[in-house]
Write a structure and sequence with these properties.
The complex is a heterodimer of chains A (570) and B (163). With 570 residues, chain A is of the alpha/beta class. In chain A, 37% of the residues lie in helices and 16% in strands. A 6-stranded parallel sheet of chain A has the order 3-2-4-5-7-6, with helices on both faces. In chain A, strands 15-14-16-17-19-18 form a 6-stranded parallel sheet, with helices on both faces. Chain A has a 5-stranded parallel sheet with strand order 10-9-11-12-13, with helices on both faces. In chain A, strand 20 and strand 21 form a beta hairpin. In chain A, helix 10 packs parallel to helix 14 and helix 16 crosses helix 17. With 163 residues, chain B is α+β, with helices and mostly antiparallel strands. Chain B has 2 domains: 77 residues, 2-Layer Sandwich (Alpha-Beta Plaits); 71 residues, 2-Layer Sandwich (Alpha-Beta Plaits). In chain B, 28% of the residues lie in helices and 40% in strands. Chain B contains 4 helices and 9 strands, in the order E-H-E-E-H-E-E-H-E-E-H-E-E. In chain B, the strands form 2 sheets. In chain B, strands 5, 6, 7, 8 and 9 form a 5-stranded antiparallel sheet that branches. In chain B, a hairpin with a 3-residue loop joins strand 6 and strand 7. Classes of the chains: A alpha/beta (570), B alpha+beta (163). At the A-B interface, loops of A face helix 1 and helix 2 of B. The structure holds flavin-adenine dinucleotide, thiamine diphosphate and magnesium ion. Chain A: Its EC number is 2.2.1.6. Chain A: GO terms for molecular function: acetolactate synthase activity; flavin adenine dinucleotide binding; magnesium ion binding; thiamine pyrophosphate binding. Chain A: Pathway: Amino-acid biosynthesis; L-isoleucine biosynthesis; L-isoleucine from 2-oxobutanoate: step 1/4; Amino-acid biosynthesis; L-valine biosynthesis; L-valine from pyruvate: step 1/4. Chain A: It catalyses: 2 pyruvate + H(+) = (2S)-2-acetolactate + CO2.
Chain lengths: 570, 163
């Protein structure tokens, strides 16, 4: 069948079973929008800013096992998309971003709305393509989806000049794709796995440390089985929350800068550390030289060899897909007789429980003023822990991670690696479209939400009944906290002045807005949002304590065990 | 430590900038980088001379391997290998210098490939040390231009970098 390039693009998306494309039109993609108009299988979600298009596609991908798709025009459309692409890149999220480009003959001529999109995005994509011939569109899009979702996932950009989308050729979608230069290792080396199992069984102070790789590999079930089989303590990074049920006894909470005392102490003093799909981020291990002081053997499972021994020297590297490797570990354990030494394990747990006994997550609640932690706890209670929760970046993000206990994967969507303010509402949009029957809440701050506030309009158009929980502290709270602790309380530009009345703002878009001032009204307001206004977008504007800080905290440049547990420690 | 990394890469436009961009973005050193198509025109071979600790070199090879268009990577300096670089030097050649330069060129097995009444262009191939030595042997004031190709290298014996 002979089709135009634009029609081919849409046919490819249909072949990939794409439900939603998040995008914004413009000159260079007019043919593609025309082709989109003339079919119904692929639905388009018109956002109000291209950054939000990519974030929404990203939220869609994070909350499912699927590839998110965004479509933007050349020039400013593409540059607006860059933050979204970089955000997905830093957290290894599979996306295909299609951008329009000026006609091939105009490339390099400083044409209207021309930027070197492939050049600009090169350092923040898994791969990108400029398609110069209509006959290459189908195979390139096939490759883009294949690259995005296999191996270590990531965003792939396909730049299509306007004339290429207008030209015609015979369409055939390739069934298979293979690339001689790209062959990710999936199955772990069995000898290495054997060594790892042996080491784990001999451990006296074992610890399991898991991350986003478990979620990306859809391996929560395998992780849970292995962890229970061994009976060892476990921690999930900010990106790995929900990889292991947070309500389980073996779970010690999150590690790192704002992790729990018990998770950090157990990481630090373990003699065997099993790292699963986690990349020893600087926010997780603290000062690397301090972390290296304690002798411990490290086993590291990761699909990307470059994640292994990058920041921390690893003793048993296992390159492979988490799910495959964990299954093999379970198989080897179950088929053998050997079990962990019960006495050593009991002694280790006694120590771990002592650390847990410090109760580092308690905070002083108040009858007068709303504590942000309290709002998150109530949200968790009211939703029974069953909501998809997105967040923005700042203090509220940390409180969300600490106090909403995730028992299942793909329920917690946030920007960990890039820390992009403004992702919260677009993530919630993508998640709601992907999971229409699930409650979706966005925990945000008054500063972050304003970075993509225009999306209230998209939510109106597509009737997305997400619940926005604004922990309004009238501060760039996370910045203020650092200024208080490390910059002599000089609050340089961290106060949020001239805020809108968020409830009224939401109402002006036809949504429901509720302002909450008193602790006693928190639970009622949340209930109202999820029951009375179940099918509406509700903007809950909680006026919270302005001075609250996130604890525990490991300062930059300090070791994991040198934690500030509460304000009293200062 | 100095390392010579050889790689095969798909001969696509932009492939070179992926490699050079990787080095600049991650702060790795490049002493030299050469690239040209192989006998299979769809692939190019690149030789990169870099320096770094063992950990950094390990990351460099891993990061290079991760580039989607890179087919194969080897650190050829890990075992016996041969390195060659081509140099063209334009020198001022007048009076008694003409004979002196010619003699030096002969000693280094260099060839004079362009002659005018005031200059020579000398062509010399060898490892970096030999090229440096030649430059050292010529009176600096006589050197008008030097052009070096950067190092290319190959493993000795059975070691073959092929698809
Ligand atoms: C304000 C702020 C504060 C923060 N504080 C903390 C904190 O206190 N604690 C914390 O933990 N984080 C914190 N972070 C997040 C931190 O910056 C990192 O994003 C996060 O720790 C990285 O998580 P990860 O190690 O799980 O790696 P990810 O970024 O999730 O990487 C996943 C790893 O798994 C691998 N992988 C992917 N797919 C597979 C597969 N199928 N099989 C095998 N391997 C796979 C990848 O190659 C990669 O190495 C904070 C972020 C912000 C913005
Ligand atoms: C796009 C962007 N700009 C700047 C920052 C730096 N930053 C991190 S947290 C933060 C403050 C966030 O304020 P708010 O959304 O109100 O959250 P709070 O910390 O008060 O809960 C800032 C400015 C960032 N992460 N992202
Ligand atoms: Mg704030």
């Amino acid at each position: 069948m002979v089709l135009t390039g634009a029609e081919i693009v849409i046919r490819c998306l249909q072949e990939e079973k794409v439900e939603y494309v998040f995008g914004y039109p413009g000159g260079a993609v007019l043919y593609i929008y025309d082709a989109l108009f003339q079919q119904e299988a692929v639905r388009h979600v018109l956002v109000r800013h291209e950054q939000a298009a990519v974030h929404a596609a990203d939220g869609y991908a994070r909350s499912t096992e699927r590839v998110g798709v965004a479509l933007v025009t050349s020039g400013p459309g593409a540059t607006n998309a860059v933050t979204g692409i970089a955000t997905a890149f830093c957290d290894s999220i599979p996306l295909v971003v299609i951008s329009g480009q000026v006609p091939t003959a105009a490339i390099g001529q400083d044409a209207f709305q021309e930027v070197d999109t492939v050049g600009i995005t090169r350092p923040c994509v898994k791969h990108n393509f400029l398609v110069k011939d209509v006959r290459d569109i189908a195979s390139t899009i096939k490759k883009a989806f294949y690259l995005a979702k296999t191996g270590r996932p990531g965003p792939v950009l396909v730049d299509i000049p306007k004339d290429v989308s207008m030209h015609k050729c015979e369409f055939e979608y390739p069934k298979e794709i293979s690339m001689r230069s790209y062959n990710p290792v999936v199955k772990g080396h069995s000898g290495q796995i054997k060594k790892a199992v042996q080491l784990l069984l001999e451990a006296k102070r074992p610890m399991i440390y898991t991350g986003g790789g478990v979620v990306l590999s859809n391996a929560a079930e395998q992780l849970t089985r292995l962890t229970r089989l061994l009976g060892y303590p476990i921690t999930n990074t900010l990106m790995g929350l929900g990889g292991y049920p947070a309500s389980d006894r073996q779970y010690l909470g999150m590690p790192g800068m704002h992790g729990t005392y018990e998770a950090n102490m157990s990481m630090h003093y373990s003699d065997v550390l099993l790292a699963v799909g986690a990349r020893f981020d600087d926010r997780v291990i603290g000062l690397p030289s301090h972390f290296a002081e304690e002798p411990r053997k490290i086993i590291h499972i990761d699909i990307d060899p470059s994640s292994i021994s990058k920041r921390v020297k690893v003793d048993v590297p296992i390159v492979g897909d988490v799910k495959e490797v964990l299954e093999e570990m379970i198989r080897q354990l179950e088929s053998g007789e050997a079990r962990p030494n019960p006495e050593a394990l009991a002694a280790w747990w006694k120590q771990v429980e002592e650390w847990r006994g410090r109760n580092c997550m308690v905070y002083k609640n108040s009858d007068e003023i709303i504590k942000p932690q309290f709002v998150v706890q109530k949200l968790w209670e009211v939703t029974g822990g069953e909501a998809i929760v997105t967040s923005d970046v700042g203090q509220h993000q940390m409180w969300a991670a600490q106090y909403y206990r995730f028992d299942k994967p793909r329920r917690w969507l946030n920007s960990g690696g890039l820390g992009t303010m403004g992702v919260g509402m677009p993530y919630a949009m993508g998640a709601k479209l992907a999971n229409p029957d699930m409650p979706v809440a966005c925990i945000t701050g008054e500063a972050s939400i304003q970075m993509n506030i225009q999306e209230l309009s998209t939510c109106k158009q597509f009737r997305l009944p997400i619940k926005i929980c604004n922990l309004n502290n009238r501060y760039l709270g996370m910045v203020r906290q650092w200024q208080q602790l490390f910059h002599g309380q000089r609050y340089s530009e961290s106060y949020m002045d001239s805020l809108p009345d968020f409830a009224k703002l939401a109402e002006s878009y036809g949504h429901v807005g509720i302002r909450v001032d008193k602790p006693g009204d928190v639970e009622g307001a949340i209930r109202e949002a999820f029951t009375t206004h179940k099918n509406e977008l509700v903007f809950l504007d909680f006026q919270v304590d302005q001075t609250e800080n996130v604890y525990p905290m490991v300062q930059g440049g300090k070791g994991l065990t040198e934690m500030i547990l509460s304000a009293e420690d200062l | 430590m100095r390392h010579v990394i050889s790689l095969l890469i798909e001969n696509e436009s932009g492939a070179l900038s992926r490699v050079s961009g990787l080095f600049s973005a991650r702060g790795y050193n490049i002493e030299s980088l050469t690239v040209a198509p192989t006998e299979d025109a769809s692939m190019s071979r690149m030789t990169i001379v870099t320096t770094g600790s063992d950990d950094i070199i390990e990351q460099i090879t891993k990061q290079l391997n991760k580039l989607v268009e890179v087919v194969k990577v080897v650190d050829i300096s890990e075992a016996a290998h041969i390195e060659r670089e081509l140099m063209l030097v334009k020198v001022r050649a007048t009076g008694k210098d003409r004979e002196e330069i010619k003699r030096t060129a002969d000693i280094f097995r260099a060839r004079i490939i362009d002659v005018t009444d005031a200059s020579y262009v000398v062509e010399l191939t060898g490892n970096q040390g030999k090229l440096d030595a030649f430059l050292g042997a010529i009176e600096p004031a006589l050197i008008l231009e030097t052009v070096r190709s950067g190092v290319c290298g190959v493993g000795r014996g059975d070691r073959v970098l092929k698809l």
